[in-house]
Structures are given as C-alpha cells and as structure tokens.
Amino acid sequence: MxxxxxxSATDTELAAHLxxxxxxxxxxxxxxxxxxxxxxxxxxxxxxxxxxxxxxRERRAGDGxxxxxxxxxxxxxEHSRVWIVDPVDGTREYGEARADWAxxxxxxxxxxxxxxxxxxPGADEGRGIVLRSDAPRxxxxxxxxxxxxxxxxxxxKEAVAVAEALGAELxxxxxxxxxxxxxxxxxxxxxxxxxxxxxxxxxxPAAVALAHGLHASRADGxxxxxxxxxxxxxxxxxxxxxxxxxxLAALAKISG
Length: 256
Known about the structure:
This protein has helices spanning 11-31, 37-59, 91-95, 157-166, 176-184, 199-211, 241-255; strands at residues 64-67, 81-89, 102-109, 112-120, 129-132, 147-151, 169-173, 190-193, 215-217, 236-239. The protein has 256 residues and is an alpha/beta fold. The model has no long low-confidence stretch (mean pLDDT 95).
C-alpha cells in the first residue's frame, strides 16, 4: 500500500503526484488487454479524470476545477485559484502506446498559469518522467539549426511557414504537452500552435515552461489568461526567450 500524502504537501507536490499516479493508472488500463483501441481512449479518459477530480476536490476543496472530461461549471469563475487538468493529452498517442502523450495538472491563480506538472508516462523508454514547476531543469542549448515541433498529423500552415522563414527543421510530435516539454528536454526549440486548443491543453505546460525560464504566450505575444468563461484558446507559443522575437516577427509578417 502506498504512503498517504500528507495535507502539508505543496500545490506543486500535489500536482506532480496526481499527474504521475494518473499516468500509471492510464498505463494499467491500456495494458489490461481487454479494450479495443476506440474503447481504450474513453476508458482511459474516464479513469484518469475520475481520479484527478476526486483527489483535487478532496485535497483542495476551496479551489475551482476545470477538466476537459467534465461538464463545465460556471462556479469556477468565482474562484481565484482554479485547477485546470487534461487527464489524457494525446488520446490517439496513448492508445497507440507511443511516448508523446501526457497528463496535465495545472493551477491558474487570477488567470495566470502559476504552477503545475506534466507527466510523460511513455517517456524514458516507458519508465515515465514528470516535469514540474518547482523543480526546473537546465534547458539544453539550442543547436545551430532550430527545431520546431508540429502536429504529426495536421501541421498548422502558420507554423510551417514560420519554420521556413527561420530555417527551422520540423519535428512531428503528438500531444501539446509532449511538444511543450520537448523544448525543456532539448528535443526541440520552438512550439508554435495555431490550430485551435482549449485551456486544459496549455495551462500546465505553460506553467512548467515559464518556471524553466522559457517564453510562453499567445501567438500574437499577448499573455496567456486562464479560467475564462469561454475556454477556447486557439494558439500558443512556447520557446526560449531569445527565439520569441524572431518567431513573433515572422508570424506577424506571414499573417499580415
């Protein structure tokens, strides 16, 4: 039986623990061998979501909560502190047992992505890793030729155009969380998304990226603001701070 987490755990310790445990639950569901690929995504989402939401409502009962897999609740708008979770970011990649899927547990305070954790259960040859806002790693230096992560199935035309303008190599990858964490891990240098997302797709990744000293904003350079009535957040830029200016300038030129 596991050790009971004490009530003295910090918000980020809680986020990291929940993300890691949810990731293990998802792997267990997938490895059960009793679900078809279509059913697996639904079962995984439901299992991880139930765990995360029950845990947060017990451990942080006074906070708001927004999850991709739950019906939205207007009550969250009354809270300064709101947990924003994505139980399975990259359902297709999860079902295919790829490495590029994630679990997001983030906390927005007054709309700011303040802290969080992103679990990559399939990373490190299946051993899994958790990147968190209270334990920043050293981000490896960028190579001579920049690398931009894009969707492995539907690369956004704006991202492709910016990559061409900067002479960057395209790196196809799955989930939003995996792409954002790839910048921290030195597997990529720029994550530009313009194809439509929601708050749960980027809150935890943005919080972790900011804690690592990276740039995180909307595609026009404006701040990321969470816990909005409309949870649609169509674009995102995460990169090293020195690359933000050139990316935004190239994107403005292309969009103009």
